[in-house]
Design goal:
The complex is a heterotetramer, with two copies of chain A (348 residues) and two copies of chain B (375 residues). Chain A is an alpha+beta fold. Chain A has a domain of 148 residues: Up-down Bundle (Butyryl-CoA Dehydrogenase, subunit A, domain 3), CATH 1.20.140. Helices cover 53% and strands 13% of the residues of chain A. In chain A, the strands form two sheets. In chain A, strands 1, 2, 3, 4, 5, 6, 7 and 8 form an eight-stranded mixed sheet that branches. In chain A, helix 6 runs antiparallel to helix 7 and helix 6 runs antiparallel to helix 9. Chain B folds into three domains: 82 residues, Butyryl-Coa Dehydrogenase, subunit A, domain 1; 107 residues, Beta Barrel (Butyryl-CoA Dehydrogenase, subunit A, domain 2); 131 residues, Butyryl-CoA Dehydrogenase, subunit A, domain 3 (Up-down Bundle). Chain B starts with 6 loop residues before the first helix and ends in a 5-residue tail after the last helix. Classes of the chains: A alpha+beta (348), B alpha+beta (375). Chains B and C meet through helix 8, helix 9 and helix 11 of B and strand 10, helix 7, helix 8 and helix 10 of C.
Chain lengths: 348, 375, 348, 375
């Protein structure tokens, strides 16, 4: 047992943090100017878009831990690129469906594909159906969803060129598109072979985990920003960080963020290492923990920043908005807890 | 102990309700253009004034009716209940003026304040002086028969639309910080005054910052003695508005009804968890309402506003923020996908309730003082 | 509108506080020595046991406000006498049933009667039925319950001499007896006339209110004790009350106790002044608020007392135990909230 | 990163499980008589020692096996899983001795500590020195070749049954308070030692106070140099046991299963609210377990125990106390009427978790230090 990043994983973390640092906003207006294309190229060049493609033995090039490391770093940087949508959720779906060429294509960084979620953002969309969202769709030409068939679910590709309108989502760092009506069956192109139920659950475990990692990154960075502010801001002739009330607010937020990190690290390891039921339970646990504390942690950060933390110009609410949206994606604690209960109370 | 209206209060309330029902401008809350909304609020101030509803608890000699603050509370309550436009806030500025101003200043400033001809803002906080107001740096240097003001104010609510400002500035940098501050009554149209709206996280302009560059104020517009500014500020702050004074309680009730409606629309009323959460929100609102009634009763009984107001402020922030959390829990993704964007905006608007007017942390400090806990 | 105690009510508060002060424990071992009989006599002599008897016009001698004032004072003192059981809950039940002589008899202080509650302590027992509890039964010869009849509920008296055994309840300040089996119909003696449904709801409003008042007293006194301790206890060379973390713990507990007081004061006034539905809603609101915060407030008090606050010898847990038990009596927030919801969501 | 046992760890775990299953004394947790329970714990210590399970991570030269602390963690985990008696706590006393003792002291004290012949307690806190340990007043005055100790210690867990005590006392009242403290290894059978159990709010004797009246300690039983007591204490405290080291996590899981059972018995498993609360409790336990695994991994990688332990302590208190709240919510009145008296006792036993070993407030201070926040 050694629940620590390996040296290679530690290096990966630094690479990802460096890319994130160059592409992350310091305040909301940076979101208009930051060079998203350059960030995406850097990710591609560093091989980070290829982590969930498969090697010659059919094994993922990078483990769940590695993808989570990257996801956390990009979350911490509030980086406005569709790493989760394209490089993880869509790529993994393609790889599981055996559409390896399509997965490889995404890893080169030229084309981007994301996923369609149902109207609650709580599950991969099963088409045809009612309104759907393309989440994390920046620069994506198309998005993946499922259709139900006799041999299991079939991955289908839907072009985003028509039938979608931009939605004014809460998250200022991701592009969200809303279908302007039901998706016509004629617009669905099957990709790869049908997915087994297990493959789909494995996908869900990975997806929940990387979203949790994104939340962890958002929270850790937000807390770090707030703590740094308490070391600069003077009131009553002293740094506000010397007030015990402020110290304890920060300490509580820090503990919750770290606790979420512990749960997410395990889920990330479990993705490729445990049987699918255990991996999914670990992922639900991580998502529950992250979703449960994300609102309070980012609110605490806004509170520590005081007046300026309430303003649109300030970065604080960008953390809050990304965390609040991530909470919903593939289901917040209100969705996860009943499923955990099902396993605990009837499944064993 | 009686929570009911006295016969006089009941009569007042009945008349008021009738008047409000007949007078509230239809569709005022649908106005999207900000300037038009401001104009409407000014008009509403004048309308209320003409009907005798502004400054009811002020002394008669200053244009008030010398009534108990209960009448102001009833006005607040019924304005909320009947969905009237926001009430003008004349209390804290008026209090500062009629406690500290010269006779001439009173004659000059009180009537237009009451009537709504002149609207006011409060230039207290600064970027480096938020909770720690006494650290303010905006300086007023005496130059002949004028003061020359330079500095920057923040969180000057209504600064964009105000005609006048109750300004705090440092007139003596050489004495302890609480003692070197003076208060001024300044026109916002003076050269050198620049106002910049502050947009809060909801995306709405809720307040403003004001830049003061060589703004000249005649000496006779200083309020009180030089160095008396801190005392004036503390009086003003003590009369700042709590939840009872801004129709919050009535608004809370209306918002709760909307949240109940959301739950119904989404078919969630069968869920015991949701039912309990809605009932809990009702209890929070009731508790705050009843606590405010007790505090109002103390005020009516002649006790000056004291640190008990901090209790209401904490309950207020908790109620408002919890209700927005509940709405978010009911709306789920819709609040994040833009389908219910108005609720996301309300959520962000609820956050500063625990910051402005003294953060939750400051309120707890005040309560600890009240409990006579050691410094 | 004037939501303040009148001068007379203020005087009553002082009288009750004085009696409470002489009969309240300073530490748990005092509960063995405190002169309960003397305290009861003082209450009788001051006329406080007679508040819910009726005057010649059939009006209660003392309003809900007055009973709540006394209940709060006795709660604050942790006084181990059955004021709630005998002087309020039983007396009111007798008065509502028109059994005025029996009510008068209790007010003189010689005889004591309490009430039987169901096994969840959440309602007045309806007999015959399963196991019941005689709550707040110190020195009581008998207890009241209900039977269901064609004309409404009938108050019945049950002797506590046989068929009851002492229960080791959490609350060290009240006597709790458990029936050792179902209560035989032969043991029930009807008292007074059948109660209307409205009378029973009115009783419930009063009962919930005085229990809330007891909790308010317990909480206020506990917080006051903790605050006083922070002004004596030195650690790190300073009074612990000078630590902002301790100040904020106390401030939060104080706010919750005061908020409960506000809700309870209104409910107390409502008992005799509003129509029964409104009075009951106010009572449920007060009980909900008090029950919701009682655990946390008394736990905070134990926390502020640090190590000694965790010991049996110390008074802190006596507050906790009384508050936790009061929470259950006639239903905690888990019972009240759904009923409030019924009114809000379907009743209007 | 690997959360699984290595092959060696897996083999150790399998052997251990087999051994435990065969060796755990049947019905040990049903023993009501306290002295008998103490005797059983001592016997269990000796049994574990003979099987090589005590002090596994100690250096070989001090009687240990020089293994990674992971093996201690596995022992804790499986002891909890299989319901074994509480493990002896030799770590923190052992650490103090093998870091600070003379060769002769090591030879004298370490073998019986390991073997279970001698059990130890820790005489640190005092009535006036709880969180603020450095203020301790118990005095040790040098008198020839003995120290004479006078004072009172509190929260001396196991004081009633211990053979020896690691005692802190002030040897020099004239220097700053942290510098005048020395540490001693004292027999609890010395004349002048009086132990009084402290009963906690649950009604159970959980700890003790110890009175020291003219207790004479030979100079050679001082640990470390005079005035080195504070450093020794800080080392010891850093190695005090966290949730991972006392089988808490395994116990938590067993308690959670019981609470799930309570909900099932009461027919509450259909209620979504209850299901979610139980799942929430599961998540709390998992989060704590995983956080502890990360910290153990850091320890294994050679990092000294640091302030990160405060995170686990806060999560621990929250998990334990929340689970008891949940049990109370499920049991309702039964917990108050004596029907489920054991749960009331567990509830009160959960309260000091946020007090002993550094209150929740102290843990947050430590985290603020770790975050390098200003003093």
């Amino acid at each position: 047992m050694l629940a620590l990043l390996s040296d290679e994983q530690q290096m990966l973390k630094e690479v990802a943090a460096q890319i994130a640092g160059s592409a992350g906003p310091s305040n909301p207006s940076d979101l208009n100017t930051v060079d998203r294309a350059a960030a995406w190229r850097s990710l591609a060049q560093a091989g980070l878009l290829a982590l969930r493609t498969r090697d010659d033995d059919g094994r993922p090039v990078g483990s769940g831990v590695e993808v989570a490391v990257v996801a956390e770093a990009l979350g911490a940087g509030l980086v406005p690129v569709p790493y989760l949508g394209s490089a993880v959720l869509a790529t993994e779906l393609l790889a599981l469906a055996g559409a390896h060429d399509e997965a490889e294509a995404l890893s080169e960084g030229d084309a981007r594909t994301t996923v369609l979620l149902d109207r609650h953002l709580s599950a991969l969309a099963v088409l045809p159906g009612e309104q759907v969202y393309a989440w994390d769709a920046d620069g994506a030409a198309d998005a993946l969803a499922l259709t139900a068939g006799p041999d299991g679910h079939q991955v289908v590709r839907v072009s985003l060129d028509t039938g979608f309108v931009p939605a004014t989502g809460a998250d200022l760092t991701r592009t969200l598109l809303r279908s302007d009506g039901p998706i016509d069956e004629a617009r669905l192109t099957p990709v790869g072979r049908p997915l087994s139920a297990e493959a789909l659950l494995r996908w869900e475990a990975l997806a929940l985990t990387v979203i949790s990692a994104d939340i962890v990154g958002v929270m850790r960075a937000a807390v770090a920003r707030a703590v740094a502010y308490t070391k600069e801001r003077v009131q009553y002739g002293v740094l506000i960080g010397s007030f015990q009330a402020v110290q304890h607010l920060c300490a509580e937020a820090y503990v919750q963020a770290e606790a979420s990190a512990s749960a997410t690290n395990y889920a990330a390891w479990a993705v490729d290492e445990l049987d699918v039921a255990e991996a999914l339970m670990a992922a639900r646990t991580a998502k529950t923990q992250a979703a449960l504390v994300a609102r309070e942690v980012t609110e605490t950060v806004m509170q520590v920043f005081g007046g300026i933390g309430q303003t649109y110009e300030h970065i604080a609410h960008v953390h809050t908005r990304r965390a609040l949206t991530d909470r919903q994606v593939l289901g917040d604690e209100g969705v996860q807890l009943p499923r955990i209960a099902d396993v605990r109370l009837t499944g064993e | 102990m009686d929570y009911r209206d006295t016969p006089e209060e009941a009569e007042f309330r009945a008349t008021l309700r009738e008047w409000l029902s007949a007078t509230i401008p239809a569709g005022w809350d649908k106005i999207e253009d900000e300037l038009e909304a401001v104009r409407l609020r000014k008009d509403w101030h004048r309308t209320l004034y003409r009907a005798g509803y502004v400054g009811m608890s002020w002394p008669v000699e200053y244009g008030g009716r010398g009534l108990s603050p209960v009448y102001d509370a009833i006005l607040n309550e019924e304005s909320g209940n009947l969905g009237a436009p926001p009430l003008p806030s004349v209390g804290y500025i008026g209090r500062a003026i009629f406690m500290y101003a010269s006779e001439e200043q009173k004659r000059r400033f009180l009537p237009p304040l009451l009537s709504g001809e002149a609207s006011w803002c409060q230039g207290f906080s600064e970027p480096e002086a938020g909770s720690d107001l006494a650290s303010l740096r905006t300086a007023a240097r005496l130059d002949g028969d004028h003061y020359v003001v330079n500095g920057q104010k923040m969180w000057t609510s209504g600064g964009q639309y105000a005609d006048w400002c109750l300004l705090l500035a440092r007139t003596d940098p050489d004495v302890p910080k609480h003692k070197g501050i003076s208060a001024f009554l300044v026109s916002m149209t003076e050269p050198g005054v620049t106002v910049r709206p502050i947009v809060i996280a909801s995306g709405e302009a809720e307040t403003a910052e004001v830049f003061w560059d060589d703004v000249r104020i005649p000496v006779e517009q200083r309020l009180g003695a030089p160095g008396e500014g801190w005392r004036i500020a503390m009086t003003t702050v003590a009369y700042e508005r709590g939840p009872a004074d801004i129709g919050f309680i009535a608004n809370y009730r209306r918002t709760l009804r909307k949240v109940e409606g959301l739950a119904a629309e989404r078919g969630l009323l069968e869920k015991e968890e949701v039912r309990k959460a809605l009932a809990r929100a009702y209890v929070r609102g009731e508790v705050l309402r009843l606590n405010c009634m007790e505090q109002l009763s103390m005020r009516v009984s002649g006790r000056a506003p004291g640190p008990e107001g901090s209790i209401a402020k904490l309950l207020w922030a908790d109620a408002e923020q919890s209700l927005q959390h509940l709405a978010m829990d009911i709306l789920g993704a819709d609040e994040m996908t833009g389908v219910a964007a108005g609720w996301l905006s309300s959520y962000f608007t609820s956050r500063p309730v625990s910051v402005y007017g003294g953060s939750a942390q400051i309120q707890k400090n005040i309560i600890a003082r009240m409990l006579d806990m050691p410094r």
